[in-house]
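so my prof wants the structure for this chain in the tokens format not the other one, which i didnt know existed until like an hour ago. anyway here's the sequence
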Amino acid sequence: MEQREIEIFLMLADELHFGRAAERLHVSTARVSQTIKKLERRIGAPLFERTSRRVELTPIGRVLSDELRPAYQQIHDAIDRATAAACGGCERLRVGFIGAATGKFVLEVAEVFRAEHPNCEVQFHEKQFGAGLGPLRGGEFDMLLAAVPVFGAREADLTCGSVLFEGDRMLAVSARHPFARRPSVSFADLAATKVLRTTQAVPDYWDHALVPQHTPEGRPVERGPSFATAQEMLALVGAGFGAYPVPIQATSYHARPDVAYVPIHDAPPYQWRLVWLSAAETANVRAFDQAAATLAEARRT
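here's what i got, hopefully its the right format
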């Protein structure tokens, strides 16, 4: 089997969807289908069961996937080690983060990571929320730690790590706003004020996960001016141009006399994850994600 055939087979085994597998590999759906048919002819048995509603591995396909995956990973790890050796054993991992609270966590993860990978230099890059996923896709860094929705098929080229930590949602409002005198607000209250919007660099579904288009009762949520950075958002809020939901960590890292933070009592918490390009995944990326998960778990116990 050629390397590309193995990649296509294993990706389809993961996704169980020809279209999503093709998107993640940046090939056509026809290429995926042709490759699988070629493998099935070579092996002499179906590897996938296909219906109009689902794709599933056959027993033979499952055995092939289980046996191929460790060997394929060993090949990638060997290439990573050889690449590191070619540059004198010096490796580099660039980690992006959004906000001071996430930056502090990234620094702590880096200390755990360096204990096991002393030859890998970890570089840190703060990015503004309005930049969205552009810098990650543009190769400015290898991983991003941010409060992001679960992408699923909508961002098929990305891999999300596990939830590392959470934070309650607060509504940032002007200190002069009537909400500032309340102990808490609800999602329904968003219809009673303008809510700021992020720049267009953030996908619509990501924006809607942060600010619903309608309240639970179906009332539309009016949107206010746009912002690209946290400081722009806070300046607009403080001046009374609108409100915006933020994680509870903002009360410590972005305390301002003109801004009040009010709990949103019926909102799910923000969840922070590491995210990276699936095609650019390396042993160091996986190791850093594991170090982050280990540190997060230690903090919860």
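also thought this was worth mentioning. The longest strand covers residues 270-277.
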